[in-house]
Specification:
Length: about 210
DNA sequence: CAGCGGATGTGCT
DNA sequence: GCACATCCGCTGG
């Protein structure tokens, strides 16, 4: 397989919704000594944008946990959720403006077996290996140890460009943010229409149904 | 298949 | 104390 270019910092230094959309179809790469190279095609993202967005962790100001979101674009923001699981975000926009894209689901490309093993071999079908933000981190061994790392270098975690493809994008409200008041219904969750690896689909997978 | 409860660290009230 | 950008196993149809 031909190796592709790594996405540069300028890719992340753009409006968060644009980055969230452009990340669909790109290749998330994770290198671990024990398992080698793991790769997956990103199929579902969510945008979390700035101080006003009540669903964004940064809306209540900077804390030890969310500090990375306030920094330079092109870094990983990994946080612990429900005390057990991790979620991977990619920091966007200029330093000082806290925003990021949550990587919610992906399609296995390389290292399927290793990723299923990291999931504890409880996976029933291949398309369920990375079909959720917590699952994805578990399968790719992403924890808070990766919080803050620069993803614009070919290190242990980065995103590669991928050949242009045609697919339809579904835009709908984000998952699990009903508390976010006027921001809860913003169509800031994006996914590739019809892809089996997406975590939760809208009824009939119709793009217009909830935009 | 749907629904529900448990697990449990971090940050807010 | 409580809510939380979640997942899994168990229950009942």
């Amino acid at each position: 397989m031909r190796s592709r270019d790594i996405l540069p910092r300028s890719f992340y230094d753009r409006p968060t919704l644009t980055v969230a959309e452009d990340l669909l179809g790109k290749t998330l790469v994770r290198k671990i000594p024990e398992y080698g190279r793991l790769a997956a095609r990103i199929v579902e993202t969510e945008a979390y944008i700035g101080y006003d967005d009540k669903a964004c962790h940064a809306s209540k100001g900077m804390t030890d946990r969310n500090a990375v979101m306030f920094g330079e674009p092109g870094h990983a923001y990994v946080y612990l959720i429900y005390g057990i699981y991790n979620c991977l975000n990619l920091v966007t926009e200029r330093s000082g403006f806290p925003s990021a894209v949550l990587i919610r689901a992906a399609e296995p490309i390389e290292g399927d077996k290793a990723m299923a093993s990291l999931r504890g071999n409880t996976v029933r079908k291949p398309h369920d290996i990375l079909s959720g933000p917590g699952k994805l981190c578990m399968a790719m061994a992403i924890t808070r140890a990766q919080n803050g790392i620069d993803i614009c270098k070919k290190g242990e975690l980065y995103v590669e460009d991928a050949p242009a493809e045609k697919f339809e994008i579904v835009k709908c409200p984000r998952i699990g943010v009903d508390y976010a008041r006027e921001y809860k219904d913003k169509p800031w969750r994006l996914y590739i229409k019809g892809n089996p690896c997406v975590s939760k689909k809208v009824p009939d997978d119709r793009p217009r149904s909830c935009v």
